[in-house]
Design a protein that fits this description.
Chain lengths: 463, 226
């Protein structure tokens, strides 16, 4: 399932958001400039009109002034002009302004009147720009013009801005959300296709939609790489298997001949022990090759014909039965605890082999008087089996390496990893075949803890 | 001793099988193809058959299937270069009695043939098995040696039963592990030896004539006398 939070993480969504933010910012700057320029222009127009009227009325003969003021008022159809004639001591003489505004200096220059002025027949004040000047008669003439038109333009521009944004940003966001869904879904498809590949099933490939987009391009590149890896691994494995296979036949014959020699001529002085050693060596060589081919066989196993519900407790009980005498002979306390009723899906023979190997190794590396313990616990996802011993443990840098087929420790002959031989590789192959997981840690005594997590877990998505 | 038919197309392998079986006193006939093998096996009175899995023409699987269809119950040891677990299961399901992977140790092959022959001759119906003064009661699952009861764990009884049933024969560690534990892999160098050692302590107490013997380089044998 795609979660909303996944969308926010998607590259497309992020790009759309960044682009959207830039768009909004630029829109605000643009509209701001338009608003400012428009306001400036309109104020300029208002000032020009006021100045022109002032010049005209100031030049008129005093006797004809009331008549000219009337005519000017009559021309003002929208009622935006304010005119007022006051005596030198500020008393009303004529015009539609009731009294001299206190914030307007009488200097003949235009000033803003953000609080407007008192006009006859009007109760609200409108912001205006105007000037006051002394006439030759000593009287004061005030001319002002409402600037509400500039504010109206600002409202228009703001509304346009809001509409514009809502019509572009909202569909943009929705579009971006939808747009980011498809690549994300493809990525999820690829993620689930990669899971078996990461588990070692190199025969799988990533899905290619055929649209030829970037995801397809990437999937094709990865697929080509996978093909090459599969071919190389196949070749290496083939060569190894062939060597193991081809050497096995002459070795078996050699062993047969040594055996026959031992049966017939073993009585001769000094030859018997030598022959015995030779046979032991050949046997260990044959064991190695058998183990190598066994790993190969396990790795090739694609069918899971022998799989079914396996009683883990019963398997571990059998393992205990098989190894208890060996542990006792080595004075090692060997316990399987506690017998939980846990069932897993798997091949009982292979699981027995894996746990036997782990227990045999634990016993092998635990000194006399030590302990080996097999503990089963139930995690949320399924049962988990810990094989804990009081041996020397496995150095952390060797933990991954011991699971590999051809690993040889740098620690020399004494190293525990070296002693594991191919046993752990077999265990690793069996665990992989089941889709389980093998972990190697220290335990509280400093010995090794090898855990088999018996659940098929999905590979955590990369964050 | 026994009359064995070897069906094997590879002359070198066949020579090895024949030589080893003959060296143990068996009478061996060899044919190199499936069709001839089938007619010999159907007609001849054999105690056991070694059958190669991969034969030109009629292959081993078909031979054993046809034999069983014809009602011939001669025990068959399938020998194959295919070590796959499924392959083994297929061979046994078709009617094979045992399965050995190439390359094999000849003594292991002979030991397996001898076990098959012994089983065919039917010593296994008795409720009580006896070797010398050792007595195994299969019904009460108890064992006695010279009149005194042996305290055996269940696994030890199963092990002793397998040894007694095949007394006088060499049994390899692999065969013991397969028969007693029912698993087929290498359980580690000495785990079977330890089990045999414990059993030996109980079965062959000091003073008694030892019954369980170690066969150097091969395995174990339970026998009355050398």
């Amino acid at each position: 399932m795609l979660k909303l939070s996944d969308h926010w993480r998607s590259a497309t969504t992020r790009l759309i958001l960044i682009y959207g933010a830039f768009f909004v910012l630029w829109g605000i700057v643009l509209v701001g400039v338009v608003y400012w320029e428009t306001g400036r222009y309109l104020s300029h127009v208002v000032e020009a009109i006021v100045e022109q009227r002032a010049r005209y009325l100031g030049s008129i003969d005093r006797a004809r002034l009331p008549e000219a003021m009337e005519a000017t008022g009559a021309l003002d159809l929208r009622g935006v002009m304010s005119l007022g004639l006051f005596s030198a001591d500020g008393r009303y003489v004529d015009g539609n302004i009731e009294r001299v505004p206190t914030d307007l200096p009488i200097d003949g220059a235009i000033h803003a009147l953000p609080n407007g002025l008192d006009r006859r027949g009007r109760t609200e004040r409108e912001p205006a720009r105007g000037l006051a000047m002394h006439l030759a008669s000593g009287e004061v003439l005030i001319i002002a013009r409402d600037t509400s038109v500039v504010d109206q333009v600002a409202v228009i521009i703001r509304n346009a801005l809001l509409w514009g944004f809502s019509l572009t940003v909202i569909p943009g966001l929705i579009g971006g959300f939808l747009l980011s869904r498809r690549p994300l879904r493809r990525v999820r498809e690829i993620e689930s296709a990669i899971e078996p590949i990461a588990r070692g099933d190199l025969g799988r490939r990533l899905p290619v939609s055929g649209r030829g987009d970037e995801v397809d391009l990437l999937a094709t590149i990865v697929n080509r790489m996978l093909g090459e890896i599969e071919r190389l691994i196949g070749e290496v494995k083939g060569v190894c298997d062939n060597i193991a296979h081809d050497l096995r036949t002459p070795l078996t014959r050699l062993r047969a001949q040594l055996h026959r020699l031992q049966q017939t001529g073993g009585g001769e002085e000094g030859i018997g022990p030598t022959l015995e050693h030779c046979i032991v060596d050949v046997d260990s060589l044959l064991d190695r090759f058998r183990a190598l081919l066994r790993i190969s066989e396990l790795e090739d196993m694609r069918r899971r014909g022998g799989f079914g519900n396996v009683d883990l407790g019963a398997i571990l009980h059998e393992v205990h039965e098989l190894y208890a005498p060996l542990a006792e002979d080595n004075a090692i306390a060997f316990r399987v605890e506690p017998p939980l009723p846990a069932t897993v899906h798997g091949d009982p023979h292979l699981l027995f082999e894996a746990f036997s190997n782990l227990v045999a190794n634990a016993i092998k590396f635990t000194p006399r008087g030590g302990m080996v313990s097999v503990r089963t616990s139930l995690a949320q996802a399924g049962p988990r089996v810990d094989i804990v011993d009081s041996g020397p443990g496995i150095p952390s840098r060797e933990r991954d390496a011991v699971l590999q087929r051809f690993y040889r420790s740098d620690w020399g002959r004494d190293s525990r990893a070296e002693g594991y031989g191919l046993g752990l590789s077999i265990v690793s192959a069996i665990v992989r075949l089941h889709g389980f997981r093998l972990r190697i840690d220290d335990n509280e005594t400093g010995g090794a803890r090898v855990s088999v997590e018996c659940w098929v877990d999905a590979i955590a998505p990369a964050r | 001793m026994a009359k064995v038919l070897t069906i094997e197309d590879d002359a070198v392998t066949a020579r090895e099988i024949v030589a080893e079986l003959q060296s143990r006193g068996n009478q061996v006939d060899w044919v190199d193809n499936g069709a001839a093998g089938l007619s010999r096996a159907s007609g001849g009175d054999y105690d056991a058959i070694t059958l190669d899995r991969m034969l030109p023409g009629l292959d081993g699987l078909a031979v054993v299937t046809k034999l069983r269809e014809a009602g011939v119950q001669t025990p068959v040891l399938m020998i194959s270069a295919l070590s796959d677990v499924d392959e083994r299961v297929r061979g046994l399901r078709a009617g094979g009695d045992d399965y050995l992977t190439k390359p094999f140790a000849p003594d292991e092959m002979v030991a397996r043939i001898e076990v098959l022959v012994r089983r065919q001759r039917g010593t296994g119906r008795d409720a009580v098995l006896r070797v010398a003064d050792l007595e195994l009661d299969l019904i009460t699952r108890s064992a006695r040696r010279g009149g005194s009861v042996l305290e055996l764990l269940p696994i030890e009884f199963r092990l002793l039963e397998f040894l007694v049933r095949n007394s006088g024969q060499v049994l390899t560690r692999t065969m013991i592990f397969e028969a007693v534990w029912g698993y087929r892999f290498d359980p580690g160098t000495n785990v079977i030896d330890v089990h045999i050692g414990r059993l030996r302590k109980k079965v062959d107490p000091p003073g008694a004539a030892p019954l369980i013997r170690t066969v150097r380089g091969s395995g174990y044998r339970l026998a009355e006398t050398e």
